[in-house]
DNA sequence: AGAGGTACTTACCAAAAGGTAAGTACCTGA
DNA sequence: TCAGGTACTTACCTTTTGGTAAGTACCTCT
């Protein structure tokens, strides 16, 4: 009855890697966590302008299932939960670096804009 | 009136790269073209078990628009069209290599299966 | 007292992505 | 003559993905 799969079968390695990275915000979450080391839920939400809370936890849960992020719950009130990258999350991020450079080159080529906060924020 | 966009705005390079690679078969098309240098439409279809003709051309057209593949039409009967990677397609493929290796490692870790022809083929 | 913050969860809805199956026009080989 | 190949195109439908908005429970600050 799980709605998540992400366990193949796969055609090749790229196929398997894309499966865990595809999702509107996943690569951004990866970057955000790599950049800050560890982040709370609300910090991530603020760091990803435009993300909905629903998608944010959905993605975080899937990435936890896939062994990319670690979720540390502090049993206090108000609630505190910290997210960080696991070993596999870190290596995935490293593997994404060349792709990021290629993308930066493409942005230059086509003259695409960067997302600005006023574009991303819904209010 | 074009239904395709893929022109940003983007949060970062990975975002921009993912935009042109996301699509069920795109990375596979990239690999297939890199592997064989140049392929005809029907050769690609046979090389990607399970792909529908609709998605195959849709993806090929988008990748052509994005400057990743070159489409060479030979005005003969029966029709002959050859697809190959452009300079940018080749460099994208190179940038995907580390991701492919990471994915191969993940397949090993979770013990995922490779797609077999009987799984992929619809008839 | 009331606004706003913590981290979610849930129901409902819209848009995007992808699949099926048929049609087109012309050719080759059995 | 008739199946099967070439490279598509089109209409229709299902599945997947993502967004909205509300609710939960408890806290701090003004």
UniProtKB/TrEMBL annotation, chains A, B:
It comes from Planobispora takensis. The lineage of its organism: Bacteria, Bacillati, Actinomycetota, Actinomycetes, Streptosporangiales. InterPro entries: ArsR-like_HTH, HTH_HxlR, WH-like_DNA-bd_sf, WH_DNA-bd_sf. This is Transcriptional regulator. GO terms for molecular function: DNA binding. Residues 12-111 form the HTH hxlR-type domain. It comes from the Bacteria. Keywords: DNA-binding, Transcription, Transcription regulation. Pfam families: HxlR.
């Amino acid at each position: 009855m799980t709605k998540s799969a992400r366990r193949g079968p796969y055609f090749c390695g790229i196929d398997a890697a894309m499966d865990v990275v595809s999702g509107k915000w996943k690569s951004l979450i990866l970057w955000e966590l790599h950049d800050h080391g560890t982040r709370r839920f609300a910090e991530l939400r603020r760091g990803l302008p435009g993300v909905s809370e629903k998608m944010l936890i959905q993605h975080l849960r899937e990435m936890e299932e896939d062994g990319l992020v670690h979720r540390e719950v502090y049993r206090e009130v108000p609630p505190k939960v910290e997210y960080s990258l696991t070993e596999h999350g870190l290596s995935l991020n490293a593997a994404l670096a060349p792709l990021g450079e290629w993308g930066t080159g493409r942005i230059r080529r086509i003259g695409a804009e960067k997302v600005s906060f006023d574009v991303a924020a819904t209010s």
